Amino acid sequence: MTGTPDVQPKISLRGVTKSFPDREGGGAFTALHDIDIDVASGEFVTIVGPSGCGKTTLLDLVGGLTEPTSGELRIDGRPITGPGLDRGIVFQQYALFPWRTAQGNVEFGLEAKGVGRRERARRAREVLSLVGLEAFADRYPHELSGGMKQRVAIARSLAYEPEVLLMDEPFAALDAQTREQLQVELRSIGQRLSTTVLFITHGIEEAIFLGQRVLIMTSRPGQIKESVAVDLGEVDTTTDVRSSPEFVAHRHRIWESLHDEVLRSTVLAGGPTGTEATR
Ligand SMILES: Nc1ncnc2c1ncn2[C@@H]1O[C@H](COP(=O)(O)OP(=O)(O)OP(=O)(O)O)[C@@H](O)[C@H]1O
């Protein structure tokens, strides 16, 4: 089990197993097995694991997009029974409405919540400015770069102030520079808004830079192998924090743990596969 035991966690998973029907045999294929996780309110938790270990499945379960085969998932002690406005989800792909401007896309979630027109516009401007896009509010998605589109997707999730932000490799499709810039922004947004964040990534460095805690998953069926608390002290984003001794030590420790799992999944799959997670 991972997390703080005596305070009610924001997100809590107990004995969560998820199986899918096996195409060939009519049996079941276990993607996740007996997962226990506690995430404290306001905590930023990153998850790394070999390709196919069930990270997206885990996030889908917390998002209420699928149901567990067994086990319990709770937010603030209440069982998760489906999607809800208490949880914002940001996927790898931008998933913006092409016929709406950046501002229109951000306002979408607020419309669903019944927020009035003026308040919608005000909040949309506010979060667009938070992600550095105030000057691009009137642009349509096709007029925006990949990084800008992903910023809009993040702004849209932040606009309705979800208590929990679920992010599935949100920066994977971006170039290295844009990714780093967005990491810095997300880190500071996370700290300012004290949103509880569950963030999936293939990148060890991204996991360490963003996470207050890194959860390492085993190869399939996915289980939580380790929970590593990250303390980088006060991060000065103008310096190369990734070169600091603390950062390098974390990277080495997590790389080793993850590397074993990637090797195991390679053997299970009968050949080289899924080594992305060793970056
Ligand atoms: N709807 C589904 N039906 C059947 N099998 C599924 C379904 N969704 C996921 N799986 C299987 O469950 C396993 C875990 O998938 P998942 O996408 O959660 O892994 P992941 O760790 O996010 O992978 P990656 O890192 O490559 O994105 C995979 O073997 C996948 O094929």
UniProtKB/TrEMBL annotation:
InterPro entries: AAA+_ATPase (IPR003593), ABC_transporter-like_ATP-bd (IPR003439), ABC_transporter-like_CS (IPR017871), ABC_transporter_ATP-bind (IPR050166), P-loop_NTPase (IPR027417). Keywords: ATP-binding, Nucleotide-binding, Transport. It comes from the Bacteria. PROSITE patterns: ABC_TRANSPORTER_1, ABC_TRANSPORTER_2. The keyword ATP-binding applies. One of its GO terms (molecular function) is ATP binding. Residues 11-244 form the ABC transporter domain. SMART domains: AAA. Pfam families: ABC_tran. This is NitT/TauT family transport system ATP-binding protein.
